[in-house]
Amino acid sequence: MLVSKLIAPVAFAATVFADGAAINDGLKTVDADIKALTASLTGFSGDLFAAIPVLGATLTLKSAIDKTTKTANSSEPLSSDDTVGLADTVGTIITDATAAIDAFIAVKPKFDKLLIVTPIAAGQVKGLKTSTAALGDAIIAKVPADFKDVATQLVGQINAQFDRVSKYNSLAT
């Protein structure tokens, strides 16, 4: 009984204290995972077993995006200072996401030679696109009204990368 009285406030506090810093930390993890995915893509040899690290990096990235979405959804509305900090991190993510999409496009011919890899990669990209859209929506919902247009434009730049890969090939439809 005493233990449950102690644990409940701690668990509650963990959800209440989600703030701009927690979201920014999550976004930095997402960015690190984007870089790891890009590295696995650029290192992909075309061998079936070499696709395993690509799949692993994609799943790790999706997990980080989903976790950050939960953090953003549980956050209080963001301050202007928090929003500016997030915008800086998102700017870095845009650059790194562009590199990741470039890597996906470059490696697609190697995926196609293995037949089974392209549909798996397409499913992974689609999952990343869905998770990324949910994260963008969660963050936009928390920024002050004066920043919503800028936040929407930044998220739009990331979404444009998924649109670019969709137009190039069947990796994300």
Helices and strands, with pairings:
Elements (H helix, E strand, L loop, with lengths): L1 H15 L3 H23 L8 H24 L5 H34 L3 H26 L5 H21 L5
Helix pairs in contact: 2-3, 2-4, 3-5, 4-6, 5-6
In short:
The chain has 173 residues and is mainly alpha-helical. Helix content is 83%, strand content 0%. Helix 2 runs parallel beside helix 4 (80-113) and helix 3 packs parallel to helix 5 (117-142).
Mean pLDDT: 89
> What is the number of strand segments?
0
Query: What form results from the Cα inertia axes?
Result: elongated
Task: State the distance separating the first and last CA atoms.
Answer: 52 Å
Keywords summarizing the entry:
single chain; Cell_wall_mannoprotein_1; disordered N terminus; 6 helices; Cell wall galactomannoprotein; mainly alpha
Can you give a write-up of this model?
The protein has helices spanning 2-16, 20-42, 51-74, 80-113, 117-142, 148-168. It is elongated and about 50 Å long. It starts with a helix and ends in a 5-residue tail after the last helix. The chain has 6 helices and no strands. Residues 2-6 and 8-16 have low confidence and may be disordered. Pfam families: HsbA. This is Cell wall galactomannoprotein.
